[in-house]
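Changelog-linked ticket: iron/sulfur cluster example.
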Amino acid sequence: MGEVVGIPRALLYYHYYPMWKAFFESLGGTVVTSGETTRAILDAGIKVTVDEACLPVKVFHGHVLALAGKCDYVFVPRLVSVERRAFICPKFMGLPDMIRCNCSDAPRIIDSCINLSRTTREYVRAVLATGRMFTRSTLRILAAHRRGRAALTRYGRCLESGMTPDEAMAFMGVAPLSDELAQRAVAAASSTSGVARGGGGAANVVIGLVGHPYIIYDSFVSMNVIRRLREMGATVITADMLPWAVTEREAARFPKRVFWTIGRRLLGAGFHFLRSGTVHGCLHMSAFACGPESLIGDILEREAVRHRDVPFATITVDEHTGEAGVLTRLEAFVDVVTRRRKQ
Amino acid sequence: MKITFAHMGNLYITVKALLEDLGAEVVVPPMPSKRTLSIGSRYSPEFACLPLKVNIGNYVEALELGADTIAMAGGVGPCRFGMYGEVQREILKALGYEFDMVIIEPPQGRIRHVLEQVGRLVGRNPMRKYVGAVRLAWAKMTAVDELEKAAQRARPFERRRGAATSALGSALKLVDEAAGISQVRRALEEGQEMLRSVQDPTPGASRRNPESPPRIGIVGEVYVVLEPFVNFEVERRLGEMGVLVERSIYIGDWVKEHVFKDFMRLRKSRRPYDLAKPYLCHFVGGHGVETVGHTVEYARRGFDGVIQLAPFTCMPEIVAQDVLPAVSRDLGIPVMTLVFDEHSSDTGVLTRLEAFVDLVERSRRRRRARDGTMG
Ligand code: SF4
Ligand code: SF4
């Protein structure tokens, strides 16, 4: 059955899981993930991190600990940069170090350093080094990498068609097994054509949701924001559902190129939602004290003031956020959006 | 054109010398005060890091004094600093100020571009003038660093509490007013003499520990380390408690590493990176790696404790803070983190400093007893 690789279901799991899974499985590994985020996972993460760490980083620690005893390795890549001249967030650059220092119970970690900011060479070297843990054959590693890329392309297309990560993974048949959310998603995917379409609720509005993937798609962290909005009858569009060309073009309205990949994508999506007339409201969700979002959010708020026709709200979450409070705010927001729409 | 820039400790002495020598008219913002901070935090994004907020306060106060051009440095990430300029411009524009903002970006190409941008600020100058201005600014910067170090060494032994700090103040004023390199040199000597004369030369005169005062290293994010207003003068506080303080970064280092090497694309020093391994093995923006590396270095040099200073929400420092407990455990050196934002209070900081100094002394006594040396 080969080596078992654990992939924490947090942070950029939501962007790359299909690729990572295909890669490790092509090399003969078995992939397991931690389950959905729970209070226990968060609490375990809180216990080993400093107070100042942001919620997603704490959650990530919890997921790593949840994989203890379930795998031979846990995959904690150092995601420095996934494109030229840009980064994700400084915290991603130190993630394996934080895990090593704080989670002595964790399985051995695979900390491939992904850095595409300057050259592709470094990236290729990292892929090969990671693959060598499983096979000596460079050809096999490259083939595994190709399969991973192919899975990622397919995944991206699913997202652009309006699926959430859970739905896309279920649709592709790569969702973690025995996953309640995935099963729900499969049911949803087979019963409706446009899966992001709202169901049931009275509101018939489209809402642009701007936020880091590991916040808005993590049902625990986001207090189920997507499902809630849909239950109220809203159709939800996220940055990941927009073509890159659109978000790049929109983000270029800002006088400086934003050097955070996700930050730029979110800024572009926010600008698009506010300016294009394709949504009825724009909701921004971010982690308390998130560095990049403190500035991206400010830029968006200023833009929103110039487009008062599109209601805009920000919801900040941290480990103390209560579901009831978020729900009230969501209801109020959807209310405003619906009323504005009727006018 | 009246140019202004943000404060960072005594950096203004250097920047002012540089710009004025190049013929520019400079408006130095008032030294940061409660008002500065309250203006800054009122108009800045809530979770922006503290330097951005205090900068905004500086700019507003300088614009009120008639400045019309703001000069600042840009950046290419991963830290927020590289986005400051654009965000700050938006904030100030929304407040209705009319001004020109010149953001000097590190060159993607050659140093000529930087000179061109500087030229936009100060008008065209012959090369000779640039060289002269840089030499004067450099001399002042070095003098400021030397004086600050001398003050750190003097404080635990001063006869009268506060004497070293006021001597430092007068000395810095002399440096600031010096019109040429030889005057800077004289100001430095005079200042060093003043700082010597405030000390009690009798052995055992240290306020805290007659044998040898405890030594504490200060590490962290450059702005809060260098700006006494935001860190509630930790250095002076510790010094006056009888602690010998050293900090990991002085303005000269910052300018050499950040301004010169970044801008001239020279290789940066690897040393902090080597020291930070295996705790933090990769650049994380800002001074994260330096914070960890210097903590290791202070431990190896036998310091009695390390204090990390960080702005609230500072990403690189949070990564560093997250691995520091492991460093502290492995190397047996007490480490404390102080996080600053607009809500930090004087008494809060003081209480934590006192508690930490006590802890450091206790752990030192234990260590000495164990090692068999008395102290
Ligand atoms: S982008 Fe924000 S939420 Fe994500 S790791 Fe960085 S600080 Fe945390
Ligand atoms: S180093 Fe910290 S304080 Fe400085 S810009 Fe970066 S996040 Fe802000």
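Closing comment: Example verified and attached. The domain at 197-342 of chain A is CATH 3.40.50.11900 (Rossmann fold). The pocket of iron/sulfur cluster (ligand 1) is lined by residues A 54, 56-57, 89, 91, 212, 287, 290-293; B 315 (CB under 6 Å).
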